[in-house]
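Incident log, structure service

09:12 report received: a user says their structure output differs between two submissions of the same chain.
09:20 pulled the input from the user's history:
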Amino acid sequence: MSECAHAADLPRPEPVPLGTTRPECLEAGTDPARLRLRLTCGHGGCCDSPPSRHATGHFRATGHPVTRSFEPGESRRRCFEDGSTV
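09:34 re-ran on a clean worker, output below:
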């Protein structure tokens, strides 16, 4: 995996998840897809697979660039700022 410039700024340890799903999905009445944890703030949400693109929306609204898979057994990370795998 390559390091992105934002990885060094992530809190250690990772933030505690604020919930088990994306509030925007619940409000819209949709099922979250492929949950992600925002590593800056602990916000849990879906990936960009659904048409609503909640993951990109959270990045644009907050500037929080790095997510980690919140699915059991997965640890994949992605940086929305530079598109790298963290």
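09:41 both user submissions now match this output. Likely a transient worker issue. Closing.
09:42 reviewer note: The mean pLDDT is 80. The first strand starts at residue 36 and ends at 38.
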